Structure formats: C-alpha cells, structure tokens
Amino acid sequence: MSEHKKYTSIKLNARVYNTYKTRPNTIPHALGEFIDNAIGSYQQNKERLIENEPNYKLHIYINIEWVDKKTTKIIIRDNAAGISEHAYQTAFEPAHKPEDDKGLNEFGMGMKDAALWLGDTWRVVSSALGEPIKRDLTFDLKKVADQNLTSLPYDETEEETWKHGTMIEITNPTHNAPVQTKLQKIQEDISGIYREFLRNNEIEIRINNDLLGFEEYEVLNAPYYATPKGKSQEWKVEFDTGLIMGRYRIHGFVGLLEQMSKRQRGIVLLRRGRVIRGEDENSCYEPKEIVSATASSPRAKRIFGEMFLEGFEVSHDKSEIMDMDALDSIMPEVRKMLKVGEYDLLAQGDNYRKKDIAKEVKSLVGKHKENKKPISIDVTEKPVKQPEVEPQSIVEEIIKEAYAIKDELYTLEVHFVNEGEDLFWLDTSEEEEKVLKCMVNCNHKFFETYPVKKSGQSSVRLLMALAVAKYCHQCDDVDDMVERFNEILGKI
C-alpha cells in the first residue's frame, strides 16, 4: 500500500495553544464538540451517506480508558462522512469557519479546543466518503511549541472509496481529563444535551459501550387545583411565538412534573437540536415570569420545559446564549401563551398539592401510640441556637412523645408542615417550657419517593430520633451526634 506525507496549516502562534487547557469548559461540553462535528458531517452529507448505505445510521463511540483511576486515553469514533481533502487544508486552523456554518460545527474551533483542553497530544485518522485516501495526523503540543510549528505533516494511505468516518485519539491527558467516578454523570449530561437527536432515533451514541438514551419526564396528570373533583388533565402547554423583532422565534413546551424534582425542573434551551443550557440541574434557564421569582416555591420545584431557539447567537463553546436580553424580553409573551381559557398552567403550579398528603399525615398520627415511659438521655448543657420562624402546620394533629433529658422531662412534638427546603428541622423556641418541636416537611422530595402512607411510622420515628439527637448534640460536650442517634434508637 502506497504512503506519502502532506502538510496542513495549524496557523497560530504555538504559545497560544498552551492557554487552551486553562479555558473554562466541562467534560460533557468538550466531548460534545466531537459529537457536534460528527452530526454536522452527517447532516451535510446525509443523502450521499444513505445512497452509499441504504440502512445507514450515524454511530458515535466514545471510550475513556483509565489506569489506577487516572485517565490514559480518550478515543472518539464516528461513521460520518469524514474530512475531505479540501476541508483538510484548513480543518486544523483554529477559528477557521467551515464553508457551511449552519450546522453544529459552525465555529471551526470545537475539535481543536476540546482536544487540547483534554490532552496535550491527539491524533486524527479520517476517511472521506468517495475518496480513495485515509489521512492520519498527530498534534503534539510540546513539539509544536518547541519548534514553533505553523503546519503539520499528515500521512496518506490508500482506502476503499465506500469507507468513511473519523477516529480521534487523545493522550497525555491534562488535569481536565474525566474522572472515572464521574462516568455516569457524564453519560447523563451528554444524553441531556443530545436528547432531541436521541428521542428521534436519528443517531446512536455509546460511551464506554453504554448506549445512551433520554428518558422523558413524567408530566403531572391531575384536576385543576380550583376544581379538585374535576376531570384530570395533562399539564403541558406547547407554544410558538412566531417571528419576533424580525429575527427571533421560540417554540417548545412548558409543563409541570408529576413529582417535584430538583434534577428535572427548569427550562432547557435548545438551538439547532442541541441543548445549550439545561443539560443538568445547575444550568437550566429560570425566567421569573415562567419558573417563579422564588426558587423554593411549589411552582419552581415542579415546572419544566424545552424551548427551541431560532435566530439566537451562542458562545463559541455553545454553553451560553449571547442574546439573553432578547430572550428575557420575550418571556412575558410566552407566559401569556401558558393560559388557555381556564387552563392556567402557572396557577396550577403555584397552588396544586398532592390531595392526600394531609389525610396520610392524619392517619399516621392516629396510629401513633405515646410511650408509657419517657426515654431517658443524659447530656451536659451548652447554649442552644434558636430556630427560625415556625411555619404553618398542614394538619392540627401532632405526635407527642416524652423524653427524659438530663433528668428533665421534655415533650417532643412532631408538626407536619408543607414548606421549606429541608426534610425536617428542630424548633427550640419553647425550650423553657420543655417542649421541642420536630418540623417535618411533607412537601420534601423524600416523601414523593417514600410516601407517608408507605414509609409511615418508620421514617417519622427516624426523624424524631434525629431531632432529639440534634438537640442533645447542641447542648452536649459529646461531638458524635451519630452515637447519640444510635443510643436513642436503641431505647425506642
């Protein structure tokens, strides 16, 4: 097989390349650049790829290798159309925009930026559809910097014209390389970024042999809060703003989650089918007109949605919308679209509560039997921090239990409330009257996973023991609250 070398431009001062690894980025977004290139190549050459292979489907494989928990190599493979001879002349020049910049690989920076952010050495092997050549190039940052290179040699070997695709191998990892314990989170985030392509079954992505998929969120199906005995309906509204300001368009949906969820809540922003913001719970778009001005409100915990943006510009790493002022200014218009007649999605988010939570709590209180003998606990006194203002109880009934703490008889009252961020907290505002209050937040996601009617006595018992252990810990010289907690449980 014949082989010979050619050269391609990298056209940038070598010292600049050393700064790439210090730029802000994330593993999902860095790996996403390679996925974007593959999808872009597929979209631009879809007809040719299908003509070459009638049952064609884009496959992208990412494999991260670790030795002793340290990254040693990252390999990305795809069966897209490959890098053509014409494109090869400028493909490795940073910020050289492709001739067709309407796809995901619009800036001409992604692959180079991402590869150097992840590793100091990378190799690209590509076969372009319809060309009888396979091209092989290696970028070694140390060599480029030491010799101040502005072009790199690449090998050409003969290849069958029907073969196509690209392989990128990254070695000599930087400190940015993925950590093995974060593999599942990386898979979840990339699934979130490419949800639209995955749900349409348009592409297949595997990371370390695991096939990625996107699981749709469950939408609330319930009567309108104002008519609780009315017909149940799905709380999801699709909308389309049409063209605004002669340039922008937003379409998509906003809905309410069946279960409140920190991970699933929030608005996801997509552009050209790819998520720009919202691949995880920390990056969602949360306009106050839609989500709520208060992050802890019931609506904020339940509302979610996807907004597909047209006409908006993004940052070069595709992690931010550059026209945020324009986007924010359109949200009041979107808000209006979420109310159709008496179907008011935002009002439902503000006011809907699981109808049976109070009944479950009442049932639990009814089943509780007070201890005949107070539970005895010895402590050494220390100042106790006073609590915040007590919230409103959702039921009048409370659980009461006696505890002998340092030979003093205390009453622990369990109050069931429906607000706050924490699962439970201790209120000592009536400490002088020997009354401690364990405030249990029935609106916490814990009770959505383990409902009161199922977890019942056991879960509340644990919270009661924790509350007393916390009080003892606050006024005790003993540092180990867990030891105190176990002691109390042993006496119940």
From TrEMBL:
Gene3D superfamilies: Histidine kinase-like ATPase, C-terminal domain (3.30.565.10). It comes from the Bacteria. Pfam families: HATPase_c_3. InterPro entries: HATPase_C_sf (IPR036890). This is ATP-binding protein. It comes from Phocaeicola vulgatus (Bacteroides vulgatus).
